[in-house]
Amino acid sequence: MHRQENRQGTVWLLAGTGDGPHLAAVLISKGWHVHVSVVGATAAHPYRGMDLEGIHVGALGGSQGISQWLHAIPVDWVVDATHPFALRISNQLNQACKGSGQRLVRFERRMEDSGKAVVLGSMADLAAQPLSGRRLLLALGARQLVEAAKVARESGATVFARVLPSPMSVIQAASAGIPPEHLAVVRPLQGPQPGALEAAVCRRWAITDVVCRQSGGATEALWASLSMQMGFELWLLRRPSPIAEVPVVHSVSQLLAHLNGTTT
Hints:
The protein is built from nine helices and twelve strands. The protein has helices at 19-29, 41-44, 62-72, 87-100, 142-154, 167-175, 196-205, 217-230, 252-261, and strands spanning 10-15, 33-38, 54-57, 77-81, 104-107, 118-120, 135-139, 158-163, 183-185, 209-213, 233-237, 248-249.
């Protein structure tokens, strides 16, 4: 992709979702110089071939490490497009940007229409649900897995889990007491037909309930679609509210307008 000559400023894009590559491509096409940070090597693959200024893979070292990065590589804007449940990095970004006088904007996915799904304010709310004899699949992040498995078992459910193919996810599943025969280690939306693996897992284990995060995007939409097709109950862990003092945009057009509207 060739950058247009309407040269803008420099953006540091932190992306932990599927939105990142599209955001980076659009920003580059509009003349922005883009640095990208992702959590791992797999997340870096979609950026191959892009005209990036640079890509950082791995941990940033907390708010202090972020401040050092901002000092070493000055940017006009920091765009936080990390996962809605990645509260720690969002808070660290806010702290570092405030300390450095750096402009920060949050890209937040819009809420999806998830049909008849029931939204849980917290995993503790699951304890009040009638789950005795139910076969419940946890399709959550590793950090929520231990609490969710404990609450679900206490509610009488037989617990299964779908986790990402990473050492941390497998370790957390073991810590949650989920036996190997109740564990599916798969990456969402993989295979020749997106959703086929998830549907096969639900059929194999005769799943009656699925718990996932209200994160928006393709994964939540997939579970909502499968719940309607297959008839299982869908429970959504409520999305955390974004940081009140950080401006939020919900689309690429809003992001571009925000960047251009306050940048000279």
